[in-house]
Each structure stands twice: as C-alpha cells, then as structure tokens.
Amino acid sequence: MFVEPESDLHWRAFLYVAGECSADEASAFEQILQTDQTAREAVALAVELVEAVGVLGAEAALILQKPKRSQRVRSLVWAVSLAAAVVVGAGLIFAPRSSEIGKPDPSEVALRWSGIRDGIDADWKAVVAGPMPVDSSLGLDADSGVENAIERPLPSWLLSAASVPRSEPAPEEN
Amino acid sequence: MTDGEAMARSAAVKGEPVADRPGPLARLYADIAPELRRFVLGVVRDPELTDDVMQATFVKVIEQGHQPRPETARGWLFQVALHEALAVRRRASVHDRSLQRLAGRQPRPAISPGDRLLQGETVEAVRKALDQVSDEQRTVILARMYEDKTFAEIAGELGLPLGTVLTRMRRGLEKMRTFLSPGG
Predict the structure, then answer these.
(1) Of B121, B124, B12, which Cα lies nearest the Cα of B60?
(2) Is this complex scored with an ipTM above 0.95?
C-alpha cells in the first residue's frame, strides 16, 4: 500500500479544506478519508490552522497592510543602492573617456607650456632682482646681515682690480 | 428518545463539554469532540451543518448501543462523522463556502472568560508562529487564509507563477504547524 508522505498529506488536506481541489481531486481525497485516520486528523489540523489565523482578526489585516521593519529596512537599502548605482552610472557616462585624456591637443599643450615657462621666467627674474629672503631661523641679524651686505658699495681694491685692462701685459718680475 | 440520548444531543448541539458527567460517552466526547468538530467542519465547510453532523454522530453512537473505548473509538467515530458529513453535504447541496466563514469571522456567541484567556493564548501563539515564516510566506498565508483570495488571485497580484505561491504557502504552513504543534 502506498503511504503518502506526511507533508504531502497535510498539504492535500489544506487544499481540500480550502476548496482548492478539483472535483476529482476532492473525491479522491475523500476516498482516502474513508480509511486513513491520519488523513482525517490532517483535515482537522488544517481547519485548526485556518481558525487560528482567523482568530488574529483585524491584526492579520494590519500585518498585511504594514510591512515588517525588516521589509522597510530592506526597501531603504534598495533605494540607497539604486541611488548610488545611478550616480556611479552617470559618472561613467558623462566623465571624459580615457582615450580623450591620453591624446591631448598638441597646440594646447604648447600654449600651456609656454605660459608656464613665462611664469617661471618671471618668477626667476623677480627672485634674481629682488632681495634675498632672510630666514630668521638662521639667527642672522637682519640689520647687519646679508641684506645690508648686498647694498654696501664694493671695496676700492676690487674696483681697481676690475679696471685693469686685460690686454696690458703683466709686469715681469726680476 | 432516552434521557441519555437527549443529554448527548443537547450537549452536542450546544457544544458544551460533558466531561463532568459520568460514563464513557461523556469522556469520549470530552476527548474527541473538539478535533472531531474541526474535521467535520473541514468536510462540510459550514459551522451550522457541522453542528448538525456532530449531533447526528453522537446520537448514532447511542442508538447503536456502542460502548466506545477511547483506544478504538477514535477511528470509528471519525468514520461515522465522515459518513454523516458527506450525507448532510449531499442533502444540503452545499457549495464551497469561503474560508472567511470557515475562519469564524461571522458573529460568534459570547465567550466565557476562560475561553477568552484561551483565545488570547491562541492569538499569541499564532502571532509567534507567523513570525517564524518569511515575509513572502506570511503574505501568501494571510492573503489566502484571511483575505480569502485564491492562489491564482494571489499569484496574479504578486506577479508570481502559481507554483511559487503554492510553494510559499506550503512551506509557511509547515513551519507554522511545526511551531504550533505541542512539541514544536
């Protein structure tokens, strides 16, 4: 004799009680009920379960209408994930492509470089023409230090030496 | 009708326990009647007809002079009740009624404080049992049992294949049954 698994029996009992069986299926199950006490008890259990849920009454309706907290959290996570995906996607679409970055316009590069170089030249000229910056941390006195030394007139011996014409032969020593 | 028959009939009709009355029939009734009534309700799907079947079943026990022993009477009583239920259903040409009615949402007679306490415990147990199932399973269970929608309607509303809805219902019911069973 074929013995139906218990879970199948309970499921068939529920379908029978719920009126989800066809006429043939219901008739076949009622044949089983004629002889199988386990099947009868499964029917009683299915009814008990339905009645138990019915006892919940209005609370069941509330459960149906209001999603559980875990559902709400899950929905929030989904929304945040979706928003992040949209932002990343938009970034990928509208950001300059790597091919564009890798192939700059030569004329633009040249212009930019010349601008930078002019800037460097200007900065360099300013540095050479202007006074040397003094680093106070070196412990030098600003009044008697490097700055004043630059402005001080050259010594006379140095000017004399500089005025000696180079073409004139040097006196021979005896 | 004898006094015993009248007593049994009266008790069966009113749904009153007769455990305080002496005799094997009273004990049998107290032990089996609640489960037997659910079984009959599952077959006829009508509370009023269920009362009729319960009455007819216990009257038949008395008429036949059956001296039931609990260990043997259980199966016999269920079988008698099934025959009565099928006969009553044929006579009444009962069509399928909604599960809402089965779930007892029609006005019920006043319940005693003890019954109310028991019902409160049942509500709590069912609430916990529903917590055991997944959100998807719970949606299907309540839509089927409380809102009385067919599986096909539920599948249409959720945009799911019918087989998926049936599987969710089945798995959910198994979890609930396991949780609500005495050893669960």
Answers:
(1) B12
(2) no
